[in-house]
Design a protein that fits this description.
Layout lengths: L1 E4 L8 H13 L5 E5 L5 H7 L8 E4 L5 H8 L5 E5 L5 H10 L2 E6 L3 H5 L1 H11 L7 E9 L4 H10 L11 E2 L2 H8 L4 H4 L4 H16 L1
Parallel strand pairs: 1-4, 1-5, 2-3, 2-4, 5-6, 6-7
């Protein structure tokens, strides 16, 4: 099963989500591989800064041949998580073509909602060769108890993709755990952040 986290806009917390979902799935006794398909290699940097090692492997694959290379290793893992690149059209297209599920993170701001058109156009274009592809939107970095956090669901309705019920809130715990080469599931296992990640993982599993 290949799950790609994609958005053509950068700075949305896509890598943080991909890392956390990979870790969450691995804690369900699943064999997980995280593919860093972003030339900036942020997920690889995270893995290299982990002091205690990780429950899953992380490899870099920012190549146009991503689709064919994923297909050769797909059966070796229960889940392959792809952290896709912003603004690299060919790699994003390859990730979409290879995936079973696309998760599109979006921040609750007008600019981020408007910028969704680029990735959604790519997804719709590739669906002609990947008819079974599923796509969902997830609200990331939601600011708790604000009107813009509540209203973003209405703003996203025009895009005709399901919006996951679980929203990931803006919490310091995420940045702190990533800075230590860990996730909130390790550093803050009983926290609100950890509950969000586990809920999001379970909702993703329901979709696929």
């Amino acid at each position: 099963m290949i799950i790609s986290f994609l958005n053509q806009k950068g700075g949305l917390g896509k890598t943080t989500l991909a890392i956390h979902i990979a870790d969450s799935l691995s804690r369900k006794d699943k064999k997980v591989l995280l593919i860093d398909a972003d030339p900036q290699a942020s997920a690889l940097d995270w893995a290299e800064n982990s002091e205690n090692g990780n429950r899953f492997s992380v490899v870099g694959l920012p190549k146009k041949t991503l689709r064919s290379e994923l297909r050769t290793i797909e059966t070796d893992y229960d889940y392959i998580i792809v952290d896709g690149p912003p603004r690299v059209h060919e790699i994003a297209m390859a990730a979409i073509a290879a995936s079973d599920l696309i998760v599109i993170p979006v921040q609750p701001s007008p600019f981020d909602v408007w910028s969704l058109k680029d990735i959604i156009d790519l997804v719709n274009e590739v669906k002609t060769i990947n008819e079974n592809l599923k796509t969902v939107l997830v609200i990331n970095r939601k600011i708790v108890n604000t009107a813009i956090g509540r209203d973003v669901v209405n703003a996203l309705a025009d895009y005709n993709f399901p919006i996951l019920k679980t929203a990931i809130c803006q919490r310091v715990a995420y940045a702190e755990s990533i800075g230590m080469g860990q996730t909130v599931l390790h550093t803050n296992s009983d926290s609100k952040a950890s509950e969000e990640i586990q809920a999001l993982t379970n909702e993703i599993l329901e979709v696929i």
